[in-house]
Amino acid sequence: MERTFHCFQCGQPHAVETWPSINVAQDPDLKGRVRDGSLFVWECPHCGARNLAKYQTLYHDPAERLMVWLLPDGQEPPAAVAEAVQELDGYTLRRVRDVGALVEKVLIHDAGLEDTILEMCKHVTRMELADQHPNPALLDVPMRFYRLEGADHEITLSFPLDGQMQVVNIGFNVYEDARGILSRNPSVQPAPGFAEIDASWLRRYFR
Ligand SMILES: [Zn+2]
After folding, report:
1. How far apart are CA 77 and CA 74, in angstroms?
2. How far apart (Å, rounded) are the C-alpha atoms in residues 91 and 113?
3. Ligand 1 centroid to 51 CA: how many Å?
4. Cα(152) to centroid of ligand 1, in Å?
5. How many angstroms is it from 5 CA to the middle of ligand 1?
6. Residue 158 contacts by C-beta under 8 Å, 6 or more apart in sequence?
7. What does the pLDDT look like over 135-172, one tens digit per residue?
8. N or C: which end of the chain has fewer CB within 10 A?
9. DSSP alpha helices (H): ranges in 52-160?
């Protein structure tokens, strides 16, 4: 489905292919383009600027039993669809507000990790970084899962600081500890249906 977007830089309109739903079982090629974010990037033919197309889409990976609803600007999912999908057994259902968060959910799930536990990892890592470096901005810095790597399953998180992207590597023991904290706090659960799991979600329980 084509939609017209306006270039953020020159303002010229351009017809861009959009995906109101993404089923990676039906279109396996789309998975890689979601994982690297390129599915949502379009280049302006007038000025060459790279734009990020902003629209609602439902990502569905039947093999991984994962659905992520990208709802920019706090849009609400159609109630009928949201209700029908809640009947799906064993699925992880998430909602996100931007492409970066959609990419992260897919990367986390594909790596065999859980986003709830990773939010706890980020929380612990933010506190440790803020402890080591005298920069209060570190306490609230938005972190993203980047990758899980090596025999030791080292986890790399990325975050912006002072206008630059930084990465921090954490050991898998941090993930194990975070899992332990959550299992000792069984009230810390995703809401039913398409849950929004991010730093604000965790902040309702831990500060
Ligand atoms: Zn342009």
Report:
1. 9
2. 14
3. 8
4. 45
5. 10
6. 143, 144, 146, 165, 166, 167
7. 888 888 999 999 999 989 999 999 999 899 999 999 99
8. C
9. 79-86, 99-110, 115-132
